[in-house]
Amino acid sequence: MNRPDRPRTSRSTFQSTDAARSKNRMGVIVARSAFALGVVSLVVLIVTLGVTAAGTLCAAASCAPSEPGAASSGESIDLGEDESDGPSEREQTGAGADGPAAGPESGELLESVTPSETGVTALAKLDPGLLSAVQQAARDAETDGISLLINSGWRSAGYQARLHDEAIAEYGSEDEASKWVDSVESSAHVTGDAVDVGPYNAAEWLSRKGARYGLCQIYANEIWHFELRPDAADSGCPERLADASSAP
Known about the structure:
Blueprint: H1 11-60, H2 89-93, H3 121-124, H4 128-143, E1 149-152, H5 157-171, H6 174-177, E2 194-198, H7 200-209, E3 215-217, E4 225-228, H8 232-235
Antiparallel strand pairs: 1-2, 2-4, 3-4
């Protein structure tokens, strides 16, 4: 028995089929791309509308950029001294009714200065007559090979109070401390009427020759402490007191 012949598919038929499949794939890819593009466009539109709406609302509410820690309305918050995170400038310097207790404005000198450095607060607030006398003495001391410096001049009441408190802590009692550091009420430094000079050879030189300038060593235990006594040029310096606690 003869088998019937199988139908033969021509090459052109296969090619047509492949072309149709490729066309279908391209259609799917194009459709998917169009869908993705549509989604992206929709997202961009939504974001744009959201930003525009937010801007409109912000403009209506008078929004303002705020700094860290500021109120949300754009207004700053007045914390006050008790609510601040750290010590105030007044607390840092010890400033009070008696003036600062430390720093240049208190009259504190961290190093010795020459009498000509009048821009320094400790010298600028001295009695003019006292400062002039010290300046003249310093010029004459220099001819003798002595460099006369000022270790302390005018002091604020706050600074003097601080020194007095430190002396009490050092010497153990107010009576003993007062022999070396006057109270605010009796200190000639607070009124600008006293200077402490150095180094030792300069203090010793001024102790011997200061009367001609009206400069006198006031306390026997403080060879560095001088005050102006204008009559000393004619009658000499008054008798020295034992210490600051002996002052009338």
